[in-house]
Design goal:
Elements (H helix, E strand, L loop, with lengths): L2 H16 L8 H14 L4 H4 E3 L3 H10 L4 E3 L2 H12 L6 E3 L13 H12 L4 E4 L3 H12 L7 E4 L6 H8 L5 E4 L6 H18 L5
Parallel strand pairs: 2-3, 2-4, 4-5, 5-6
Antiparallel strand pairs: 1-6
Length: about 200
């Protein structure tokens, strides 16, 4: 069976089931949400996935100039690199695999994020799985160590204060407003944003 036909049929089925429940969502936001639903089979993301007002415009502008991307886990890196290699060639760095000096009170991911933040303070940051990475990212932003071009946060977070800090920030951001989330969701968001941006500039893969 043609994989493109299968995907189109699945997306059409999602549209039928959503059926008007996306009235307060822009077409570009909905395109990203439906891709998340397609990859997770979870319609709850229609209400859980949130966008700051400037998230898509700032994210697209950053992709276009090949802004470095920092991710927390290898699963995201492996998923997004193929799309980027066909489009904007953004370099992708992973916190969990970078060589860094890990102090006893810090995980490899947190130490890797701090090291990469110093190198790419205005990068695109994607935290899809690690709660400690999200806490570290928030601390880096609050201390003005970094000023992200875009931050995507879909790590399952069960502490409401951390979710509140992230959702109430002023930088461009896309995030899951709840304890649900995964690296799969983060990858789907970024890949969809890459596709939207590439099409906006009249390019074909």
């Amino acid at each position: 069976m043609n994989p493109h036909f299968t995907e189109a049929s699945s997306l059409a089925a999602i549209d039928r089931q959503v059926n008007g429940n996306n009235q307060n969502i822009s077409p570009a936001q909905y395109e990203i949400i439906r891709q998340v639903i397609y990859h997770t089979a979870d319609f709850e993301y229609i209400s859980l996935l949130k966008f700051s007002e400037d998230a898509l415009s700032k994210g697209a502008a950053s992709l276009k100039v090949s802004t470095p991307i920092v991710v927390d886990v290898p699963e995201i890196q492996v998923s997004i690199v193929p799309e980027l290699q066909k489009t904007f060639y953004n370099p992708v760095y992973c916190c969990a695999t970078i060589n860094s000096e890990t102090r006893n009170d810090k995980s490899q991911i947190a130490s890797g994020l701090e090291a990469l933040a110093r190198q790419h303070p205005q990068g695109i940051f994607i935290i899809g799985q690690s709660e400690i990475a999200l806490t570290t990212l928030i601390n880096l932003i609050e201390s003005k160590t970094i000023n992200p071009s875009l931050a995507i946060a879909t790590a399952p977070v069960f502490t409401k204060p951390e979710r509140k800090k992230f959702s109430g920030s002023s930088f461009p951001r896309i995030y899951v407003d709840g304890s649900k989330g995964s690296a799969t969701v983060a990858s789907a968001i970024l890949n969809s944003l890459v596709d939207l941006t590439w099409r906006a500039y009249g390019q074909d893969k």
